[in-house]
Specification:
- It is a single chain.
- The protein has nine helices and 15 strands.
- The chain starts with 18 loop residues before the first strand and ends in a 7-residue tail after the last strand.
- It is of the alpha/beta class and about 375 residues long.
- It folds into two domains: about 140 residues, NAD(P)-binding Rossmann-like Domain (Rossmann fold); about 180 residues, 2-Layer Sandwich (Dihydrodipicolinate Reductase, domain 2), CATH 3.30.360.10.
- Strands 14-13-12-11-7-10-9-8-15 form a nine-stranded mixed β-sheet. Strands 3-2-1-4-5-6 form a six-stranded parallel β-sheet, with helices on both faces.
- Strand 2, helix 2 and strand 3 form a beta-alpha-beta unit.
- The protein is about 30% helix and about 20% strand.
- Helix 7 packs across helix 9.
């Protein structure tokens, strides 16, 4: 780690005792989860995917000793203690429910979005609770280094009372093929990172207004391409999250400018930075505070990145919860609130108005 000036951009690995079973062998598992787990010293005991040959290739790369024919067979493997799912949201609930029935599985890490609807997410929350299992959701942007340091700055009051916050994304996601058959695109699958991390920073929102238009590049039918959400939080905090998935032409010879930038302004200071995902660099943060930096800009730095290093924190918080009995930081009940914010955003799109979160039932 480089000079972080007393901040903690990455987590301390307190627990790495449990055997993980990985379901999925696509990019997010092969390049992020498993890379992070190798670095942290986590034990991956088995892997399975829809295509066994793909799982075998990923297992060979990361030294995973056992490859199962199917995800269902892996769930039955009594050597697996924590199930790590990287699967499409339409297929994920069935795997979660199968795992809830197995005594040897202590905890489940699910992908976001947890399910295709808020109603299904609520059901999974309640079923996990009834089964006495820990269900956690991989909201990994909370472990991005700039977001962690920003949270520490806010918690110390260095910016005073927050006035406004923005997240400005101009980047082109790789939409996975399974999304073509669904009626929800950007808000549920990309904006969910930003909406969740805004909750992490500022608490539970009171209201959201989301406007959208189609993305000219995305060829399959969709209603939410480019999205802009204005969110009101307690204490009169205003936030804007924009996901510009068009971001300009992408063709040979065109000098594209892709980025994710964020900024938080408070009564005593300003913090701003970038999320490194679009170009594979480390995220950044710089801030100035009347009370702690004399109004001068200070720039903590680090060498780790959101992808893959944040995934250490995601799995570590779950192992720590299993070990101690404490509620995981990324617990399913909290994630249902993020799903409610997404649902409110879609209602706002459909009805052309601001939607109060009190309108969305989460119990």
């Amino acid at each position: 780690m480089a000079d972080a000036k007393g901040f903690k951009p990455d987590v301390e690995v307190r627990v790495n005792d449990y055997r993980i079973g990985a379901i999925g062998a696509g990019m997010i598992m092969a390049e992020c989860h498993l890379a992070a787990y190798k670095e942290a010293g986590f034990t991956v005991a088995a892997i399975a995917s829809r295509t066994k040959s793909r799982a075998e290739s990923v297992a060979s790369r990361w030294g995973i000793p056992r490859v199962h024919d199917t995800p269902e067979a892996l769930i039955k493997d009594t050597d697996v203690e924590i199930l790590d799912i990287a699967y499409p949201p339409d297929q994920q609930p069935a795997l979660i429910r199968a795992a809830l029935k197995e005594p040897h599985i202590k905890a489940i890490l699910a992908q976001k979005p947890l399910a295709l609807s808020l109603d299904e997410a609520r059901k999974l929350r309640d079923e996990a609770n009834a089964a006495g299992k820990i269900l956690s959701v991989n909201q990994n942007m909370r472990y991005d280094q700039s977001m962690r340091v920003l949270k520490q700055i806010l918690d110390k009051g260095e910016l005073g009372k927050v006035v406004i916050a923005t997240i400005d994304m101009r980047a082109i996601p790789h939409w996975q093929s399974f999304l073509e058959g669904l009626d929800r695109l950007t808000l549920a699958n990309m904006s969910v990172h930003h909406l969740d991390v805004l909750r992490f920073l500022f608490g539970d929102p009171e209201e959201i207004y989301t406007a959208t238009r189609s993305d000219p590049r995305t060829q399959f039918a969709h209603k939410d391409g480019i999205t802009v959400s204005t969110i009101k939080f307690p204490d009169n905090v205003l936030a804007v999250s924009m996901e510009d998935v068009w971001a300009g032409p992408r063709e040979a010879g065109f000098d594209s400018d892709f980025y994710i930038k964020w900024r938080v302004e408070g009564t005593d200071g300003v913090a701003q930075g970038t999320i490194g995902w679009p170009d594979g660099s480390a995220s950044t943060l710089t801030y100035a505070s009347k009370t702690t930096t004399g109004g001068q800009w200070v720039t903590p730095t680090w060498e780790t990145m959101w992808f893959p290093h944040a995934f250490i924190g995601v799995m570590e918080q779950l192992q720590y919860a299993v070990k101690t009995g404490e509620t995981p930081a990324l617990n399913v009940a909290d994630n249902v609130k993020t799903m409610a914010l997404v649902e409110a955003g879609y209602r706002s799109m459909d009805e052309g108005r601001a939607v109060k979160l009190a309108e969305i039932a989460i119990d």
